[in-house]
Amino acid sequence: MKKTVFAFLLLIFISIGSKAQNVAVSFSYFFPKEGYPSVPVSPFSIRGLGFDLNDYFAIQTGGTLYLLSGMQIKDLPLESKKPLSGPSFTVMVPVELMLSLQTQQMDFNFKGGVFGFFNIWQKLNTGNIDRAIRNYENWEVANSDIDFKQKPGWGFHGGAEVVFYPNNKYGISLEGIYYLGGANIPLSGSYTGGNSGDTFQTINVDYKDAIFDFTGFELSIGVIIL
């Protein structure tokens, strides 16, 4: 609970401390590669904080608190089409350069940069892990006892945004961003299993190079306060 409160306070601090001519409060949907989509509405999302460099370019940041249902872990000997991590709360903060082409009633914005993220209350999907172990070992039964270490991650992102201005007080934005990033998530422990009629085996694991895969597409619908 303390970590969640800290995340909210951090995002609020960013919003207060930044010069924001056009602040967007948005509902963000994240569709991960080989994972489960986020809950329909992210608990908290603010974008568009920053400053203008000139009439066309700006530096922006913001923050989103996601509830991610399931994300993939890669660089393992195991193979799984279903996510091996989740659910978790995830704080994601982008920093981006924006090119803006403006008309009287619409803006076309092109964005790209880097992002950082950290998972809160992260869990492993033991059901999907056990299923992947059974397929890997060709066993009928498998039960895992695997732990992990949480670490922050980062990556690159890019996309575009269209903003409509019904009046001079607010705008409506539609944004699509692709994220390509990850975080080291060392896994260690053991799993036990085998086939009926055989003696069960216990195998120790140490997947120190495992990567939490933060790759996917984000769709955001927001209101921009002018």
Structural class: mainly beta
Main β-sheet: number of strands, strand sense, barrel status?
8 strands, antiparallel, barrel
Number of helices: 2
Oligomer: single chain
Overview of the structural elements:
By secondary structure, this protein is mostly beta strands. The protein has one domain: Beta Barrel (Porin), CATH 2.40.160. 12% of the residues lie in helices and 57% in strands. The chain is built from two helices and twelve strands. The strands form two sheets. The chain has an eight-stranded antiparallel barrel with strand order 1-2-3-5-6-8-9-12. Strands 7-10-11 form a three-stranded antiparallel β-sheet. Strand 8 (153-164) and strand 9 (170-184) form a beta hairpin. The two termini are 34 Å apart.
Summary of the model, kept short:
The protein is 12% helix and 57% strand. With 226 residues, it is mostly beta strands.
